[in-house]
Amino acid sequence: MLRSWSRAVPILACASLAHAGTPIGDDGARHLLARTGFSPTAAEIAVYAPLDRPAAVARALGTGRTTTLIQAPAALTDASPIRPPREGASVEERKAFAQEQIRAGIAMRGWWLAEMIATDAPLVERMTLFWHNHFVSSQQKVRVAKLMYRQNVTLREHALGDFRALLHAASKDAAMLVYLDGVRNRRGAPNENFAREVMELFTLGEGHYTEDDVKEAARAFSGWSLDRESGTFVFRRALHDAGEKTVLGRTGRFDGDAVLDLLLERPQTAEHIVAKLWREFVSPDPEAAAVRHIAADFRRSGYRITVALAHLLESDAFWSPDQRGALVKSPVELVVGTLRSLEVVPDDATPFAFAAAGMGQNLFSPPNVKGWRGGDAWIDASSLLARKQFVETLARYEEARPGMRATVAGADAMGVRPARALLAPQPTIAIDLDDDARARQTRIARALDRAFRELGFSATRWLGSLPGDTPAAKRRSAQAILLPLPPAGSGATFVPDADALAFVRATLLDPVYQLK
Amino acid sequence: MNRRDVVKAGAAALAFGTLGRGASVAFAGVAEGAAYRNLLVLVELKGGNDGLNTLVPIDDPGYARLRPKLAIARDQSIRLSDRAALHPSLAALLPLWGRRELAILQGVGYPEPNLSHFRSIEIWETASRSDQLLADGWLARAFARRPVPESFAADGVVVGGNELGPLAGGGTRTIALANPEQFLRRAKLAAPSGERRNAALAHILKTEGDIVQAAAHLDGNHPFTTTFPTSPFGNAVKTAARVVANEAGVAVVHLSLGSFDTHANQAATHARLLEDLARGLAALEAAMREIGRWDRTLVVTYAEFGRRPKENLSGGTDHGTASVQFALGGRVAGGLYGAAPSLDRVGDGNLAHAIDFRQVYATVLDGWWTGDSRAVLGARYETLPILRA
């Protein structure tokens, strides 16, 4: 796969050849794993450290996984019809339906977070999350949890596949048709919502289309609809405007698929996607010339996503020492990465999904169609404190309940996760529609507190498991695993004789821990 | 020592515990920034509010024609003048209207409107032209030009959400706040010192410093007798009131409510949102009166755009342009401003604006803060006569 790409791009191939044979080392392995997955463990770093750049990147990209390890809750996967309340349904019926969707939505969040914690292919989950933040839909509007789940399955299936297939699939996805009002777009009564966003956000980017393009494209998408019972895509010919349209200077009797293909013909689409991938994986400031170059190749490859990613991950920009710790972890990365690198696995991940929501990233509910802004915007006064509170609480229980050390929920040996039935458990949080905001917050806080207690994290045991012959060496290993850069805090925070817990806590509370 | 260094020094002193709660840090420049004792409360109507169904041109035959399903019935609307009526869900604003402390600005927008949520809200937040990209928010620019006194707890507080909007950029001290008690409890985890090795780390360290500074001043527990609505917006208003009750002060509080992006089945959603807005604003007025701050409070709403005059076939409205905004406060000269929308020839199109949104900003900068709007906005915009002396 990568070999054929190398032939197509001799210049970059030379650049990567220059690094062939040189191991990326512990530091390089940590960087690659933190950027392409969630914070790594010592064991994961040990696997990648001896590889050279091309081999390490190939290994990270080379997963064949397109489905999850953990089976989703039955409420999301069963084939029973959706049956939203019809017009004229009673208040009770509507409420029961809403309550059921909320319950399923909570289980869904726990399921996805559990998958991220358990997965053997972190990049697949990171890319699924990336596409969730690109082809945005939100349960706030879609409401039916099952539709959000199916969208997630579709995004994962194409996560490292080809962008053309992904764009077509995501555009006909049920959640998308609800979220951007595609189901309401019909001949003679166009709804422009999807037509606008597909150009502005999903493909071309702002400034590369006109208001007329939006109006005309909306006509082409008319007739894309859903079967009410099954919630699957149907094309309703009677509602489709089959007339002539002019989109991006081309005229024809376009349907929706034809318009998507017109969008894919434009170089701006590949550039828009590559720049966004650059911001996700490389640095906050994409280099325009490099983006154009990679985008051209991405397009030539038939929009293979791994081609774009391989370019980015092998680039000198990615490996530049200046880029270590230059990106802010998203809340989900912070939560999942903390659990993964400290090697603790919760029985039920739902409370941790709520923790990420409290830091500004509620899975399946991005704030608007543009998604989470990301980058520095993750950090403001209240989100930073929520992030710090999270790691502080995690490191608190060893101190408060020494007895908990005996009942270990986490791994016994480094890198070995406990064998578990790969079924998402019943969520331990219930949300009632009638709760007021404060009662809800209290309930979530209690569940999270209980979840932390049951993790049974032991700083002493974790530190003891790390590479190093002496306690001081083990602490150096701990910082090298947890932090992308040396701690920013004053040296006084890292007194050598602090106990294991105080040391781990200080490391997790260091500002540098927020970075990847 | 520039202003940023002062913040750092103060933050460092606080970090080492030399200053307890209630202790004040003596900074220069308090008198210079005294204008910021006049509080600005911005309320963002996220998603773009339907102006035509907010202030209804009730007798205009065009209105019923464009809104066969969504038109507000004449007998349900609240008549304000011979031409205009309020949506019935805004009833909680009537006492303010009666006291002539509510200004309703008609047709607020800008030339060559952009119909993208993101681009248009960016235009509003940075006070740019339609074809101009500016990096910093208009308030960030105003505060860079004339700083908020260092003795203030923060330049601005954003309640709920984490979009800094008009306060973004320019190094403002902005605190995003959901729950004051929780903020104060957690603030002890802030660690504001360290080397700024890259832009992301610098941003984190600055935020840690802002937390320490704000926590030293914010008292989250003022006992109000005012009753606040229990909705999330009501809670946000309550938090805002408690932040303002503190003596240290903030210049700006930002609230938001949404989503007003009503492409489908608009009627019920819009009614609920407007009721939430009206009741929240009425509670804010009551709370500010209670602490004697109403005369020094100016509340202004904004949104990226209005909705299309002609309703769509989904029982909703698509993105539009000019819309209605509210300004209220103890020194606001109530009444209708701008011009009623002309619906005669609008067809499938959008409304032209009567008031440029930058005139509203100029009114805040020149009138409310006695500043220099031309320097901040890059051009002279005529102020609106909505403030009494």
Structural features, described:
The complex is a heterodimer of chains A (516) and B (389). Chain A is mainly α and 516 residues long. Chain A is 53% helix and 2% strand. Chain A contains 27 helices and four strands. Chain A has helices at 2-8, 10-17, 25-36, 42-48, 53-61, 74-77, 91-118, 122-132, 139-142, 145-157, 163-171, 174-179, 193-202, 211-221, 256-265, 267-281, 288-300, 305-314, 316-319, 331-341, 350-358, 381-394, 397-400, 437-455, 459-464, 471-482, 500-509; strands at residues 224-226, 233-235, 245-247, 250-252. In chain A, strand 3 and strand 4 form a beta hairpin. Chain A is globular, with a radius of gyration of 24 Å. Residues 1-14 and 400-421 of chain A have low confidence and may be disordered. With 389 residues, chain B is of the alpha/beta class. Chain B contains eleven helices and twelve strands. In chain B, strands 1, 5, 6, 7, 8, 9, 10, 11 and 12 form a nine-stranded mixed sheet that branches. The two termini of chain B are 37 Å apart. Residues 1-30 of chain B have low confidence and may be disordered. The interface between A and B is large, with 54 and 51 residues.
Task: Give a brief rundown of this model.
Chain A is mainly α.
Which sheet architecture does the biggest sheet of chain B show?
A: 9 strands, mixed
Note the gap between the termini of chain A.
Answer: 28 Å
- Low-confidence sequence ranges of chain A: 1-14, 400-421
Tally of individual domains of chain B = 1
Number of helices of chain B: 11
Largest sheet composition of chain A:
2 strands, antiparallel
Q: What is the CATH topology of chain B?
A: Alkaline Phosphatase, subunit A
Instruction: Find the count of extended strands of chain B (DSSP E, 2+ residues).
Output: 12
User: What's the CATH architecture of chain B?
Assistant: 3-Layer(aba) Sandwich
Radius of gyration of chain A in whole Å, from Cα? 24 Å
Looking at the structure, what is the overall shape of chain B? Answer: globular
Mean pLDDT of chain B: 88
Order of strands side by side in the largest beta sheet of chain A?
Answer: 1-2
Global structural class of chain B:
alpha/beta
Quaternary assembly: heterodimer
